[in-house]
Write a structure and sequence with these properties.
alpha+beta
């Protein structure tokens, strides 16, 4: 399966990954483009992974995220520090419900602690400020339904992924010769 991966530099020392990712998703919402992506936090890089190809191939996104907790990257020897999701989703009360547009950032660490930021979007796709919530395992909040437990799932099912970058495509040859 081919997955698109975008690399980000880690946040500066005075900022957290949480702040970096919330800022990123808010900028995406402002541009009208904040698709759901998986997040893999590593020592030297933060990977953003488009999860839509996996979902299109009937791979459960939760299973993919569980595999990412133990993923080996050819060009990065270190293991993930955190795994999560960010982007625009639908908040559904029932399976047949169309749901309200929701933007969120969720991170989970190897000890299964987690952090979650979310907000509803209005009809114009803008964040409704009084709906912004931040919850975490550290504060004793309940785990949001459908999120997390990826590290324990990977351990329980011995899931592993090996990701390698494709070699860049050679530039197209010109049909005319230049002297």
């Amino acid at each position: 399966m081919n997955l698109r991966i975008q690399d980000l530099k880690p946040p500066p020392d005075d900022a957290s990954h949480e702040e970096q990712l919330v800022g990123l998703v808010l900028r995406g919402v402002a541009r009208g483009a904040a698709p759901p992506v998986g997040v893999v936090v590593r020592d030297e890089v933060v990977h953003l992974i488009d999860v839509r190809p996996a979902a299109a191939q009937k791979v459960a996104v939760g299973r993919l995220l569980a595999g990412l907790t133990r993923a080996r990257f050819d060009d990065a020897p270190d293991r993930p520090q955190a795994v999560g999701v960010l982007g625009t989703f639908r908040l559904k009360q029932r399976p047949d419900d169309a749901g309200a547009p929701l933007v969120q950032v969720f991170l989970e660490w190897p000890d299964c602690s987690w952090w979650h930021w979310r907000a509803l979007l209005d009809a114009d796709g803008e964040v409704v400020q009084d709906t912004v919530t931040v919850q975490s395992a550290r504060d004793g909040d309940p785990l949001p339904k459908g999120l997390g437990r990826w590290w324990s799932t990977a351990r329980r099912h011995n899931l592993q992924l090996h990701l390698r970058r494709q070699a860049p495509a050679p530039p197209p040859l010109s049909s005319t010769l230049v002297n």
